[in-house]
């Protein structure tokens, strides 16, 4: 249950961040909004880490360099989400974003990429994905 609550909170924050970034980008530009968002996120995460101290800073040496570059995706995420919200609105953007996430996670799970244990996807999972896609199509009209 705790995991579901964290997922719901994270999803709500993604939506709020997208809307805020879109508003910021209207005043100063999309890449500037991405920069401010990344900087703010870094500062808040660093402050939390200072209080929580749940790991050693030197532990990053254990992580593969490819995975350390993962934070760079955030700039692309912010830019594309802001641009999409400006063009198609919040609801359709978040719906499409969730479908894209789900499709890629299916591929990652099926193939066992990034050290994830391979999962078998069955018909109910594919039906659920198809229903989500149908829902976005219905939302668009």
From TrEMBL:
This is DMT family transporter. Keywords: Membrane, Transmembrane, Transmembrane helix. The keyword Cytoplasm does not apply. InterPro entries: YdcZ (IPR006750). The chain crosses the membrane at residues 30-52, 64-82, 88-111.
